[in-house]
Each structure stands twice: as C-alpha cells, then as structure tokens.
Amino acid sequence: MKPNKLIIATLISGAIFGCSDQSSNTSTQEQTKPQEKAKVESTSAKPSQQTQNLLLAEWAGPYQGVPAFDKVKLKDLKPALKEAMASNLKEIESIANNSEPATFENTIVEMERAGKSLNRIFTYWGIWSSNTSTPEFREIQAEMAPKISAFFSKINQNEKLFLRVETVYKSDEMKQLRPDQQRLVNLTYNGFARNGATLKGDAKKRYAEINQKLAELHTKFANNILADEENYVLYLNKEQIGGLPESIVKAAAAAANEREQDGKYAITNTRSSMDPFLTYSTERELRKKVWSTYYNRGDNGDNHDNNAIIAEILKLRHERVNLLGYPNYASWRLEDRMAKKPENAIKLMEAVWPAAIARVKQEVADMQTLAAKSGQIDAIKPWDYRHYAEKVRKAKYALDSDEVKQYLQLDKLREAMFYVAGRLFNFKFTPVKEGSVPVFHPDVKVWEVTKLGSGEHVGLWYLDPFSRKGKRSGAWATSYRSHTTFDGKQNVLASNNSNFIKPSPGEPVLVSWDDAETFFHEFGHALHALSSNVAYPTLNGGVRDYTEFQSQLLENWLATDEVISQFLVHHKTGEPMPAELINKIKKAATFNEGFKTTEYLASALVDMKLHTSDPKDIDADKFERETLAALNMPEEIVMRHRTPHFGHIFSGEGYSAGYYGYMWAEVLTADAAEAFAEAPGGFYDKALAAKLVEHLFSVRNAVDPADAYRAFRGKDASVEALMRARGFPVTR
C-alpha cells in the first residue's frame, strides 16, 4: 500500500470532486479525481479463512475478476476495513523489518504489492460515497475517516520503513534501475518525506493528529454539500415553466415523479438542473430563487453551513506544512507539480484575468441592450446572465441552444466517443452481455474494450450517466483497477459518471453543447486509464496540474467534421446537423468566453490566495468578498464554486491549492490542439495520434510531464495558444 495519505484522504472524504463540472470540466481523481485513485487500485488477495466478508474477497468472474457490486453489503464495511488495515500493517511491518539489505525489489516493489484487499474495499467505498450515498453510509464514513487517516499515518511514520526507502533512494542500485523504476523510487521517497516521515517526537505526533482531524472535516464538508443538494428542490406548477424547452419540461416532470410529486416539475439543486433553468426560464424571480439556492449551498447559517469548517481546515493545513518548514500550504502543494511555485500559477492566471473581465464587460453591454428592449431596465444580475447570454447568442449568431440540443443525443454522443477512440487509440467498445458483469445500479452499463484488429483485451468501461438521490453532482471519471505488468499483465476497469437528467420512458436524452464537451472530457480520463502501459501501480497516478490535459484535449474531437456528420443527427428525423447550423456553432465557439473564464479563474485565484495567506482568524465569507473586490470581479458573475461548496478543495486535498491546474493543463491543451490542426491528417492524423498515445497517454506518471510533453510536441507550450483558443487578444 503506497503511503500517499493525501490521496487516500480525498477518497475517504467521499468527495472525489475532480472534474465535477465544465470549466474544462472535472473532473478531475484524483476525485479523487479519479486519477488520484490510481494508487489504491489493484486486484486480488485472499481474505483470511476465518472471514466470509465479501468486501475482502478476491474479485471473481470474467475479465480477470470484477467488483461484486450486486452482492456486497454496507453492514460489512466496518469489519472489512478493520481486518484489511490490520492485514496491511502486518505486510508493512514485514517489509520494514526485513533482515536483508534494502533493495528495489524487497522494499519498493513489495510496497507496490501490499494492501490489495484494502484497495478493493476502497473501490466499494468510492461507489457508496459518490454514486449511491445514504445516511447509513455517511454515518460509517464519519466514524471511519479519521481512523483510516490514523492507519495511514502509522505507515507514513514508520521509521524503519522510511529508512529502507531512503536507503534505496540513495543507493548505487538506484543508478542502475530503468527510468520508470527510478521515477517510482523518487515518487515513493518524496511521498514519505513530504508527508511527515522526517519529523520527530511531538511534531510527528501532531502531524498525525492533524491528518485525522482533516479527514473528519473533509467528510463533514462533503456531506453538508450533499445535504443541501438533496434538501433544496423547487417544485413548479404549469404556470411557472414559461420559456423552458420541451425536453427540460419533460425531465423536470420525471424528476418530480421520482420524488412522488406527480403533476409538478422539479428543479433540483444541481448544476445539470440549475444551468438550463437559468438559461431558458422567463420567470425572473424564480431564476433568482434557483440561482440563490444553488450558490448558497453550504452557506445558509444552518446545521449544514460550511464556513466554520473552512476556517478550521485552512488553519490545520497551514499548521501541518509549517511543521515541515514550508511558509504556506500552497508552497508545499505545488513543489512537486508542473507549476513548482504558487507565484508561477498566479502569474499564469493573472496573465489571462484582464482579458477575461474585459470580455465580460462587452458581454454585459450586449445583454443590457437586449434587456432594455424587453422591458428589463435595471442592471443585469447573476441570475440573468445565462438567460440574456442565450438571447445575445441568438441575435449575434442566429444560434439557438435548444435547436442544437435536438442533435445532441446522449447515446449518439457515446457512439461518437467510441469512434474517436477507435481512430486515435485503436480501441473497440463492445457491450457486455447484460447480467454478466455486476453493476451497482440498473442505470449502469458496461462495455468490453479491445484492440482493433488483434482483438487483444484491454479492460472494461462502466458508464453511470444519470442523476439520482444519493449521487453527488457533477461529472467525473475513476478507475476500479489500473493497468500494471510487474505481477503479470492486469487489465483496466475504468468508469465515467455523469448527472444527466433521466428522461421519461422512451424519450431521448438531449444535452447542451457544453454538456457534450464535458462528456468527451471525462471520457478522455477513461482513455488515459485504458491506454496505460506502466509496470507499477504508483505510476498510474498523476500530477494534478497535468492530469486534466488529456481530458481537455479530447473535447476538441466533438467539433470535428467526422463526428458531426456521423453522430450529431436529429433525434426525430435522423437527419445530420445542417451545414448552416454547424457553421453557426463554429463561429460562436468563443462566445460567452468572458463568463466561462472569469467564473473559473475567480475560483482558482481565491483557492490560491486562501492557501497562501495566514489563516489566523480567517472569515471565509469575508475573505471571498474582499479577494474578489480586489480583483475587480464583475458584479454580474460569481465564482463557479463559492468557498462554502468548493468541494474540489475542501472535501479533500486533490485540488486544494490546485484548482489553477485546469488552466495550466489548458495551456498544453491549446498548444496540442494547434499541432493537430496543423497536421496533414488534421485531428485524425495517424502519425500524430500515435505520438499522442505513446508520449501523453500510455506513460501516465512514469515520465515527468514536462519531458513527456516535449517528446510529443518538440517544444514547451506557451500561453499564447490558450489566448487564441479563448478568442482573447494575444499580447507579448
């Protein structure tokens, strides 16, 4: 079991807030965006003969074994965790107390091999936490999260184990290892050193105490958000649905029926429900109500208010890194990432910020003109922005978002993704026989992934597309098992999870262009996992400000001619999207970019400033207001994630002081997209696609990201490509 406790802390918090929505959306584990979970993915190891607990059992069945989602019981979770942790500690003690001199094989590789039964339990934990959460699970989660943190602290603070790791790290043998093995040793050593292994006495004890308390607070923060999402549902009658397209009305009726409110229309407190309502509803006061409910999650002054929790989390994080000698949390966080220093991340964001808010000013002026004509004479408010932006879109480009949705069927988009995966990655997706692979909900479907031509088995892909009670909002990717070869070739079990509103029986699922991009984005994470060719589990991890790059890049294939002509067909007539509409979409590609960039950057900048400031006596709401005021934040927009529900950074530590990573990765994305645009074969150029898979997908974290990108592109990426992609002026 690898000792990166912050990765595990994200998982046990129940958040997995990676890639939760579109901004580049996510995702992204290392929701554990899903990518961070890579370190806790593995297969088999037999439970003790004394137990019949299925959570501990090796995965049985086809495809090298699959999770028994249909048979495991929540009541078995606590005893399974206790037994698996005890077993894992015995494994660790065996490695630490080995009388033989420390070597790569008997120390590093044995650590990679340890903890398989615990890894399997965390797969089930992730499903209960993110996909099927219940009050019963949340009670267990709250009890066990600090205990799991204490367990990992025992490993991370095992002095004998660290000494053996350090011996390998400094040994002559290290120089003889393969490059990927050297990187594994470096990652393992740094995982210990950066997480308290070098501390002594009271400092070491305090470090462990802080981690336990943070695990408890992260869990509470995440559950408070989920409670507000579940408890605040707006029910409308027929007179209150003015302006809503038929597809949204039907989905809202289905959501109300699901909640036993027949004859009404439910607007749930999630982005997938809020966003289209604010775009189309002609009822301004209802728009304000829906907007306020959504953006006040965790900030209602009740039992689920998160402000005090935020303050405590920030203080504990600051204290913890101070024990290690870092001036602030962000300095510690970015040390092993591409940005290296907070100053570098801030420099990138501040380079884009002026252009973003300048574009917002133009967008608001256009909206205000239309608002005045319609009789709305006061200023544009945040609950008006989406509504009037849609009107401006129609006026400027004659582009109706609802018209576009008629060509964006979820099933067809899925087939489009499979087509792209075949052309670029040589993958084939075939539905498995219903019932042959256990699933945790009837909505979940499974496909086998093979290599085109050879038929070589790669793994399975699970899709859980629809919103439901107990499922966290947003979209994300995760893996239940990752590719490795050090103990025999192991296949991949990858998963994509969305929150589309389930339609009435027989009705198609129609989505917006932004949602379609998000669907492609999260599939990019799955392809990253499925493409893996690394030997060791740890190397399936990732660097936070890089792991969004691959998924962001895949968004570009949605707008390719090949996808549009074959898969974007009208859900009633089957006719392909007309050329006139395609041209409108492409002309409007950077429309509303001021809004999208500003709401994202505001969140990223507040995140960074929260984690570079002294948190003593901090008031989270006041800090947010004052920071945005200092940035000249346009009053017509709010942060994409206000601090009281900023799950990316407070439901775990996957994205804390790291939300900037979406933009850092987008610099790479924009540059790589230009490479495909310039290639002889365009976005389906075979030679460039092969380089993409070889250097940017298959190596995962076995190669330093900067080196990997240079191997693909032949140069470093620059911010100019990003500015061009967003339609902002490029200045040098």
Tell me what you see in this structure.
The protein is mainly α. Among the domains are: 5-224, Neurolysin, domain 3 (Orthogonal Bundle); 232-295, no CATH class; 410-571, Orthogonal Bundle (Neurolysin, domain 3), CATH 1.10.1370.40. The chain contains 29 helices and 7 strands. It has helices at residues 5-12, 77-96, 104-113, 116-130, 135-156, 159-169, 172-176, 179-193, 201-231, 246-258, 271-280, 284-295, 307-323, 329-334, 342-373, 382-397, 401-405, 410-425, 513-530, 544-554, 561-567, 579-587, 593-610, 620-630, 647-650, 661-678, 686-697, 705-713, 719-725, and strands spanning 234-236, 265-267, 427-431, 445-451, 457-466, 476-481, 492-500. The strands form 2 sheets. The protein has a 5-stranded mixed sheet. A hairpin with a 5-residue loop joins strand 4 and strand 5. Helix 15 (342-373) runs antiparallel to helix 23 and helix 23 crosses helix 24.
Report the average pLDDT across residues: 91
Query: The biggest beta sheet, please?
Result: 5 strands, mixed
- C-alpha termini separation: 48 Å
Number of helices: 29
Helix % is 40-55%
Strand order of the largest sheet: 3-4-5-7-6
- CATH hierarchy: architecture of the domain at 5-224: Orthogonal Bundle
- The gross shape turns out to be globular
The overall strand count is: 7
Radius of gyration: 25 Å
The fraction of residues in strands falls at 5-15%
CATH topology of the domain at 5-224: Neurolysin, domain 3
Q: Helices and strands: which structural class?
A: mainly alpha
Low-confidence stretches: 1-18, 20-50
- Name of the CATH class of the domain at 5-224: Mainly Alpha
